[in-house]
Fold this protein.
Amino acid sequence: MEFKHYTVMKNEAVDALECKSGLVYVDCTLGGGGHSELILKRIQPDGKLIAFDVDQDAIDAASERLKDYQNNLFIVKSSYIDIKRTFANLGVNKITGGVLFDLGASYHQFNKAERGFSFSKEAPLDMRFNQDADFSAYDVVNTYSENDLVQIFSEYGEERFSKRIAKKIVEERKIKPIKTTTELANLIVNCTPKVKSSIHPATRVFQAIRIEVNQELTNVKNTLNDVLDLLEVGAIISVISFHSLEDRLVKNIFRYHSQKCHCEPNQMICKCPPPKLELVNKKPIMASDGEIRENPPSRSAKLRIARCIN
């Protein structure tokens, strides 16, 4: 199957990095290589790009696409959560140019049936970004307690029928394990009220399970904080998120590290360290109307940018 991945806000996200030759850049989410290719074009002849991905299909496709930039590119088959260890192993001290996160899953992942991301395709419950991982959507659906299912459906999916769906899952799996995407999707459709909506009833639950399987929010939070320790003054963070939970997390981290003071109101003397970041855009940048027409999922993308100042 051909690897397909639409690069969202390619120009906006890479423009934000203000790419220059001679500096070190990081693409934390290589995907099909669209952002990386544009970065590599702009950092010639002496810039370096370190790119991370756990998906071998993505790495294979991007490696072919970027074969003309081998002298400037180092691809790491690992999650971006390993960025500190990777830098230590490579003997790289700082991100001197900038770092880019595109937090969206690829078209390829959602549409390759056996990956189990889509409720519209019959497939095993999987949803792993990293195919070498042992833990999958099957484990969430068939082993989590009812209370834990309610919590992740509510927190990660903002699903208003979380209790009803979790209860039905537990009832059904007592009879036999829930093994496929369509089994789970049909269960959700059958146990929830019919409401007028433009989205499928299983959308929020599938999102929640995907986030849980891949520990997406935890990984983003930890890695953004790790990256702050690796940034040279002047380096830029460019982050594209695709749902409100991710965007809120990025917004809060950027805001916290750009504030001058975190003291309690009754504290007389401020001992806070100087802010680490400067917000480049206080409000997120959205995809253009033209891009949304070309790639409708782009409508949910939000780009936030910050610069290291300390």
